Amino acid sequence: MIDAMLVRLRELGEDDRGLNTAELMGNAALAIAALVVIWGALQALGVDLVTWIRAQLIGG
To answer: Does this model's pTM top 0.70?
Structure first.
């Protein structure tokens, strides 16, 4: 019975489904951080960026 439990514990130790979940969570956290940085940069440039885009579209 102990041998069967040890075999099962070894099988569970080799299961990397949790690692995939952790990788996905890490990627999601990095994506959110990137969005926050981009949002902050756009907010800092805010009015100038909108004015430049408007000038490019209207042509004046």
So the answer is: no
